[in-house]
Amino acid sequence: MATSRTDPVTLEVVELIGAVVARYYEEYEQAAAQHALTGAQARVLGLLSLEPLPMRRIAQKLKCEPSNITGIVDRLEARGLVERRPDPEDRRVKVAVPTDEGRAVARRLRESLDFAREPLGELTGVERALLRDLLKRMLGEAPA
């Protein structure tokens, strides 16, 4: 039996997800500001600390326009946190790569985000894995 989109539990879950997202973004913006970054700059730097990416791929991952990413990368590059390099697989494409300082800032930024880490730490490993799998399922991704 399909669940109505307006049943009380569904409405409560939607509200709770909204509250979690709002709190996460608020803390993320505060943490970014402590490193003299905007939230968008911090998100790009965090993404690049995982792997170097071309501007178009960054935009796809963050669901925004590539022209916005170019400006963000320009400002990160001016601060010495990111540099552009030719893509080893296609020299016509430039990838954004964090510098050593950029990786260090991204690491300190991640370490300063307590909101998600502290409540998740109160869940068991099984509960965290279940939550992860349920969130992936909501996003249409295959669970681990």
Automatic annotation (TrEMBL):
Protein name: MarR family transcriptional regulator
PANTHER family: MARR FAMILY REGULATORY PROTEIN, TRANSCRIPTIONAL REGULATOR, MARR FAMILY
Keyword Transport: no
HTH marR-type domain boundaries: 10-140
Biological-process GO terms, alphabetical: response to stress
GO MF: DNA binding; DNA-binding transcription factor activity
Phylogenetic classification of the source organism: Bacteria, Bacillati, Actinomycetota, Actinomycetes, Kitasatosporales
Organism: Streptomyces cinereoruber
Keyword terms: DNA-binding, Transcription, Transcription regulation
InterPro entries documented for this protein: HTH_MarR-typ, MarR/SlyA-like, Tscrpt_reg_MarR-type_CS, WH-like_DNA-bd_sf, WH_DNA-bd_sf
